[in-house]
Protein 1
Amino acid sequence: DTLDAVIAGEQKAEGYESSDLELSSDDDDSDDDSDDDSSTSDDNDEAEEEERPNDARDNKRQKTMDDEDETFPNGIVKTVHEITEIVVERPQFEITSTTELIFAGHILQIIDNVVVVQARQGSEYQTLDQGSLLAYEDRTVLGEVFETFGPIVRPFYSIRFNRSDEIDRDRTKAGAPVYYVPSYQKTKIVETEKLKQLKGTDASNLYDEEVDEDVN
């Protein structure tokens, strides 16, 4: 019995109580959790440090874009590098009773200082180029084609004025017929089949504006 008691006492002295095991386990878990929290915190700090430069660059870029935009009285936003003042010279050409006129289309609408004409049906083979002269049915000069745009099969022609009050409102009615003048020195007919064969581009410069015509 004494030997058994001694053996039992030695085992107890050398071993761990169950409470000791639980305490030890809790301490280890606490240390692990502390390490995990520290590691997570470090990772979050590193992620925030990495995000800050990107946010700064994005904010700077956005501020630059906002600074370069300018809002005009009519509400249209344009960049500081965009050309807004275009002086239109009225064509000096006399249309007589014998001057040939060919039907070009109908007036679609007036937008500020621009008259928009929709080309006649059947224009899928030929269209008017920039500079072509347009006239009203009574042979009064309307103006030169400032731009040809829209679908090739039936494009639109824009006639630009310096001011909206220069437009003859009595003659410029929606649906009114418009004619072009073949004998005018700048009138030019473009074969649409050739346009279809051209490879276009929407390339823009540093300021997201159209590339200058002089740039090849």
Protein 2
Amino acid sequence: MRDQSRWPRGLLQTLNSLLFLALAIPTNALYFYIEGTSPKCFYEELPKDTMVVGHYKAEKFDSSTNSFLPNSDVGIWVTVDEVFDNDHRVVNTKGAATGKFTFSAADSGDHRICFMPSVPGGGGWLSGGQIVGGVKLTLDLAIGETSQIESTDKSKIQDIAQKVKDLNGRLQDIRREQVFQRVGSPRKPPFTSPQC
């Protein structure tokens, strides 16, 4: 006979549920460390007409807590170059510590995706000889066909278009009401006293 008194039944069910959720939820994100202001680059071979959407989050090392924490002073410079086309630059943008970038592959071939941190005041924040990099960058790339990625944004666009149509309808109603008030209602002459 088993001894079930060591593990309460509710705890076992909770642990099993958490284990199932941990295995069932797919993750596509990765993180890496960047030293100073040197860029960190990845190469991705992409077929023609493939859309790439990247979400990133940068955290700066805090020596007082000995951990990486969000910091609004950190910015990330994102560049994407088509290696097969003499390093033609497709994306060149500077964003906040948390951001998003998007591009479509015009032709098939290798693309170099680079990230470089920028911190106001230069590189003094990294002095101190830390073993790991001064910035931890979490990156989530969605690589797929344009139709697959844009389908998630299509409902947002349709909602905005519907709101614009509703506002235009309300504007037309207001204009009609103004015209009616100006022209449509007959004006009565001013009151005059009867003459006897």
Protein 3
Amino acid sequence: MRYQFWRDTITSTFAHKPVAQPIPVLLSSVLSSHQNDQGSKSHNPPPALSKSRFLRLITTREKYSTNAPYPTLTSLESYAENTYSTLLYLTLSALPLNSLTADHIASHIGKAAGIVAVLRGIPLLAFPPPPNHHSNSSALGGTLETRRVQQGAVTLPLDIMAECNLKEEDVLRCGADAPGLKDAVFKVATRASDHLITARQMLKNVQRGGDVGHGFEHEGEEGYDYHLETNDSDGVQLSKNGAFGGGGADDGGKSERQKMEVEKAFGVFMPAVPTALWLQRLEKGDFDVFREDLRTRDWRLPWKAWVAYRRRMF
């Protein structure tokens, strides 16, 4: 991966000088569209895509590109937040939608999806395929980190491995039969499941006219700013916590606005569906992450996705 290339590409695109490639050109078009709308409706600027979020995504991917271990389960969650959740935030911004409520739900879905992605990759990273001998680089060359990738790695959080007395060498030697592997996978998968349960309950609360239930832990951090803005259709001002501002609107108005936001955002929440299905299959297989069926497509996904979208519940 050419990480510096992508940093430079994002920087030049946000400076309205995109390189002649499809992704930068399309991104520049979206940015220009937002800017034009902001100029024509200065009282209601649309949410802008965040450059800092793009750069945070690239930096986090680079940090773990060599399959470096996650020191703790919390650091794995942080990786998922800075990658999978961030992609959902950017998608919401492109709709355009700048909603604390929608981002909060997306944060939990992204964390669950990111954790599941790491679990799914364990067999492939522990036993990587043979090197590509047609590559221009030597199979014996490269840095120590490069050779680590070639020789296999276990990306479970180190604190969870310690709790379960799981050793990396046992996984690389014994695979699915490594002592403590299922226990470690169970603990990590449980955290992903907890995030899905939380997101599901938050969505239900909003749809029923209630509050999400807890504060957004990332609110106030860089890239997580929710300022006063107005809605295109009704011109009502919205404060950063999702309540109506400037007009003394009541909690009923706040609830209706949050309902509108999650309705508009629901398509972005759909990664929760395959994430939940995979976790169900993992549980059914007694948390054996090496099972072959976990690396095949789930034939139920199209139907489950259709039902989830129709019912507005994942």
